[in-house]
Prior knowledge:
By secondary structure, the chain is α+β, with helices and mostly antiparallel strands. The chain folds into three domains: about 5-120, Butyryl-Coa Dehydrogenase, subunit A, domain 1 (Orthogonal Bundle), CATH 1.10.540; about 120-230, Butyryl-CoA Dehydrogenase, subunit A, domain 2, CATH 2.40.110; about 230-380, Butyryl-CoA Dehydrogenase, subunit A, domain 3. It contains eleven helices and ten strands. It has a four-stranded mixed β-sheet with strand order 1-4-5-8. Strand 2 (about 140-145) and strand 3 (about 145-155) form a beta hairpin. About 50% of the residues are buried.
Amino acid sequence: xxxxxxxxxxxxxxxxxxxxxxxxxxxxxxxxxxxxxxxxxxxxxxxxxxxxxxxxxxxxxxxxxxxxxxxxxxxxxxxxxxxxxxxxxxxxxxxxxxxxxxxxxxxxxxxxxxxxxxxxxxxxxxxxxxxxxxxxxxxxxxxxxxxxxxxxxxxxxxxxxxxxxxxxxxxxxxxxxxxxxxxxxxxxxxxxxxxxxxxxxxxxxxxxxxxxxxxxxxxxxxxxxxxxxxxxxxxxxxxxxxxxxxxxxxxxxxxxxxxxxxxxxxxxxxxxxxxxxxxxxxxxxxxxxxxxxxxxxxxxxxxxxxxxxxxxxxxxxxxxxxxxxxxxxxxxxxxxxxxxxxxxxxxxxxxxxxxxxxxxxxxxxxxxxxxxxxxxxxxxxxxxxxx
Length: 387
């Protein structure tokens, strides 16, 4: 379908696609097998200017919005979700600074992120605070000139590889969620270290580590917005980045569909190409319809967010884009494996990896169950008082 992209948007799409096909595809299986972090590919993305797609021009970026980010992420995810996650997570880490950072913070950190010189990461999740983000235990205690951070963050994407981290910590536990604050912490800060690299089922090229804070001093100048704004910063960030997870789902699903159609046109059984069998045609038709519907929703939501003046309006539709597209990715990947049959279960064929990768999309940046809670709550508010 024609989504009426501008010439600049098409250029971003084409550039990301070119890098994915020419640089990622040849090493996709190797990165999955070894779990090596894709530094060489990310450097190519940096040289191409992809890390600055959504960052203001004033700070060295392209000046695009959520839609431009989705276009780049989708094309990378079509080939390898692990690489796409490494790329997209830097944007996630940068968003709190983009949205709530003061001019000094933006000038200090955004140019290096936009240029790809430094990766960013976002630290919210803890061992006992996943979906229940209000239960975080990492603390930030006031001290002369700043704060001392103590605690751990778990399953942080780009952990150990990124140079710039946005961390959510409690400055006043008695206030519950309203006692959380957001801080910028640089790699190499005394008292800030990392746990082991996690051995994951999927997105294996993406680095996932624990962040450990032991009396880690963070200057007051690194407080984002003001004390007590941590969860507002978090929720507004996720509202703008969840369509990017949806775009990951669209890309992965499109990649799995591509592989399934290609295989069905080549594989013969009973003297015929299996794509001539109605059962296979119907599976492919449903897969293609879901992919196009997911893409339409993600693009529409991204455009809406880019044009919306009230951040409170976007939580519901942002969650919808994430839920529908990630569920689509899981279903399409599973069906692609089914079409491949026994071959689909083998690592020599990419749909096996796609199926493993797809699962995380239903989990990170808020599980799909939590997204449905958000959507349902917003619907309840909308219909309150209506007959």
